[in-house]
Amino acid sequence: MENRCVVWDAGIEASLRRDLGESNFLETRVSFIHTGVRRVRYSFRLAELLGHVPDPRKRPGTIKAIVEYTGLDRHQVAALLKNEVKYIPLKALSRICDYLIEHGHASADQLPGALFAVEPENFWELLARRRRLEICLGIRRDPEDPTRADEVPEVSYVVAADSVLLGEILNGVTTLGGTARFQSGESRAVLPHPEHLKQSLVWSPGQASQEKLTERADLVYRDFHEFCGDKALVCVGSTKSNPVVELVMSSAFGCVPYESQDDVEQGTDRALPFFMRYRDSDPHPPSCMAGLRISKSEPTETPGIYYETPEGNWVLCSPPEKREDTGFVFYVHRESQGCLEMAIGGFSGRATRLLARCLATRAESFWPPIYHDQGIQVGAFLVQFSPPAEKSVGDLLRTDLIAETKIIRIDGKVIERRMQRTLGATLE
Fold first, then answer.
1. pTM, entire model
2. Which of 158, 92, 122 is CA-nearest to residue 366?
3. Are 326 and 351 in contact (CB under 8 A)?
4. Which run of H or E residues covers position 328?
5. Model confidence over 301-326: pLDDT tens digits?
């Protein structure tokens, strides 16, 4: 959806104050004042109010029901559900409001304001503007714990690097990346922030049976999507440590989770445009985003994270012989549904700690999204770290590791080709 330019005048002020409510109105007005530009971005949240999630395996008949009740054109309704409309006629808006009231999705005093939401202007706002923020971490057993694998251990823990990254995410969300302190008065009073924070824990691969591991991950992911309202799920770690990352990736690119793609004919057939080659010493859970080779015809001996170029070649982001390491930031934002899913982590513990430092200083590099079409935004970034040659045991305790950093944006054409394939299968 294109950005709309709204000229601020007395008529607009009165209308927004009435329809958005006082708190949302103040937030909108402050965004005009704070940014110094006469523009604000909105998304149309019909799909969120209806709980509509396009799924090729389910055909709930949402579009048909709205068309029959309102008399609107089917293509117009589909565009409204995907936040793709350029203009909304008042007559169409009125009929949509009638439908929502009649079917109990909203009350008259909530409309039409509930159909609109202010969209983020930077990376931290992407998370802070969510009503509910859920952060998911993988946990491990204490290797000295005497309990059997099928018993509940007395002790479990989150690895240090993931804890450091979690702390930086919470810091960024609550302070808007450190910019909140520069705002004062009315603007500070209405800073965006989540109303509800939830933490979820899942077993890391190798810490429980595959059945229990996937059962828990599926439950967390399902519960997240069953929550009605604006929400975000942030998965810390890679598929090596957090199986919910697998569900985020497979959902975004329309493939089967927990299923290796090492045997595709060629790399361009992989569902994802990036690939994590396991180290021999790593756990090797079957994964759509990781494995031991890119394809049948493209064996891969060197561990690390690879990405596809527009020409169809696969490039290793950080060659280990150069002492480099890699982190990744991936998110998919379904604007019309008010749903954000993010996976963020490093190939190693060192890379994860370096990524936390990168978020603290360069979060703006992960914005704007690379792909934006049909009401979906996708951001896909790899971060190449080149730390100093010397290292010590004390580095494990440091949260301020410094490295030369290069951020690689996965090419939009590579994302688009896969997203079009995925979205083509989800049309109702």
1. 0.77
2. 122
3. yes
4. strand 325-334
5. 999 999 999 999 999 998 777 778 99
Domains and CATH numbers, the chain: 41-118 (1.10.260), 123-424 (no CATH)
Q: Other CB atoms closer than 10 Å to residue 72's CB: what's the count?
A: 19
CA 56/CA 422 separation, integer angstroms: 10
Q: What angle do CA 249, 236, 328 make, to 5 degrees?
A: 65
Both tokens assigned to 97? 């409001």
The helix/strand/coil state of 134 is strand
Kindly report, residue by residue over 200-216, the tens digit of the pLDDT: 999 999 898 899 999 99
Element (H, E) at 354: helix 349-362
CA 313 – CA 303 distance, rounded (Å): 17
Q: Going by C-beta distance under 8 Å and a sequence separation of 6 or more, which residues neighbour residue 327? A: 344, 345, 346, 347, 351, 352, 354, 355, 358, 382, 383, 385
Q: What angle do CA 231, 221, 247 make, to 5 degrees?
A: 110
Q: Name the 3-class secondary structure at 139.
A: strand
Q: Which residue has the tokens 């190939």?
A: 347
Nearest of 166, 83, 58, 137 to residue 339 by alpha carbon: 83
Contact between residue 357 and residue 419 where contact means Cβ atoms under 8 Å apart: no
Taking the C-alpha atoms of residue 203 and residue 347, their distance in angstroms, rounded to an integer, is: 18
Tokens, residue 43: 């998304």
Scanning 71-179, the segments in alpha helix (DSSP H) are: 74-81, 90-102, 123-128, 160-175
What is the distance between the terminal CA atoms of the chain, rounded to a whole angstrom?
20
Q: CA-CA distances (angstroms) from residue 58 to 140, 301, 333, 365, 425?
A: 36, 41, 21, 37, 11
Residue 232: both structure tokens together: 């975000």
The pair of structure tokens assigned to 1 is 């959806």
**In whole angstroms, what is the distance from residue 98 CA to residue 95 CA?**
5
Burial class from Cβ neighbours inside 10 Å (0-12, 13-18, 19+) for residue 109 reads: exposed
- Residues pairing with 404 in the sheet: 386
Question: Using one digit for the tens of pLDDT, what is the confidence trace for 51-86?
Answer: 776 654 455 688 888 888 888 888 888 888 877 777
Q: Which of these, 424, 412, 426, lies nearest to 273 by C-alpha position?
A: 412
> Rounded to whole angstroms, how far apart are CA atoms 281 and 293?
15
Single-letter amino acid code for the residue at 101:
I
| Positive or negative: CA dihedral 65, 42, 409, 390 | negative
